[in-house]
Write a structure and sequence with these properties.
Length: 175
């Protein structure tokens, strides 16, 4: 089996393991809490509880964690799932505009949608940088290097990088 095929198989096993863990958590936590807990709620609760500990940037990063059922259960056994379905409406002026995550521009290039934020709490790999959310990839707009969870994975062709930068310039200056 080729290295790429082995990597795909390993990734699929990891994802399958997460599905099994989530299913078990749904059953156990539904019984424990006395109401239905969904797979999505379990996934969101895990992300909320583990994002700081493992430096997760988006919920999809959970798929990369190596965790067993007991570890996952321990991290959310006391989680109040009601908070995931309730919202409080407040006036937007409570938080200064510069602290809010503002989408500055969305750019479609070769079927991928890149998002550049006006303000991003994490300036890695450049400021500004672009996000390809579906695949959790960050693009350094200065040199075209792509990163996944802070690890270099690929460099865009110069032509593609220039296209993204030109589209960004239509909205704001000097990406």
């Amino acid at each position: 089996m080729k290295k790429n095929e082995e990597q795909v198989e390993k990734k699929l096993r990891t994802i399958e393991n997460w599905y099994e863990i989530q299913e078990e958590l749904v059953l156990l936590l539904s019984n424990l809490h006395g109401h239905d807990v969904t797979r999505e709620e379990v996934f969101n609760a895990l992300f909320i509880r583990l994002s700081d500990k493992f430096n997760l940037e988006w919920p999809g990063d959970l798929w990369d964690l190596k965790m067993d059922f007991d570890e996952a259960l321990h991290s959310i056994i006391d989680f109040d799932f009601r908070i995931l379905n309730e919202s409080i409406v407040s006036h937007s002026s409570l938080i200064p505009d510069k602290l809010l995550l503002n989408y500055k521009v969305r750019i479609k290039s070769k079927g991928l949608i890149w998002i550049i934020h006006m303000y991003d709490k994490d300036p890695f790999p450049s400021n500004p940088h672009a996000h390809q959310l579906e695949n959790n990839i960050k693009l350094d707009l200065s040199n075209g290097k792509c990163y996944k969870v802070r690890h270099y994975i690929h460099t865009l062709d110069k032509k593609d990088l220039l296209h993204i930068r030109e589209e960004a310039k239509k909205v704001f200056i000097d990406p």
